[in-house]
């Protein structure tokens, strides 16, 4: 399992909250792939970690 630092998690939560292109309900795999393709998120972030980020952001 990859390590997701608290700072990176906070930055990803803020980015996801500000992003208007994310549909609700969110699919963690889809959001993860979108963020990786944009270069915002490292590919080592797992779907479980992305699910947690979406929950903190209030999108799940």
Automatic annotation (TrEMBL):
Top-level taxonomic group: Bacteria
Protein name: Uncharacterized protein
């Amino acid at each position: 399992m990859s390590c997701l630092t608290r700072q990176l998690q906070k930055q990803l939560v803020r980015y996801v909250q500000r992003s208007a292109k994310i549909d609700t309900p969110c699919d963690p795999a889809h959001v993860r792939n979108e963020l990786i393709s944009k270069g915002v998120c490292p590919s080592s972030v797992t779907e479980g970690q992305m699910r947690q980020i979406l929950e903190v952001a209030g999108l799940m």
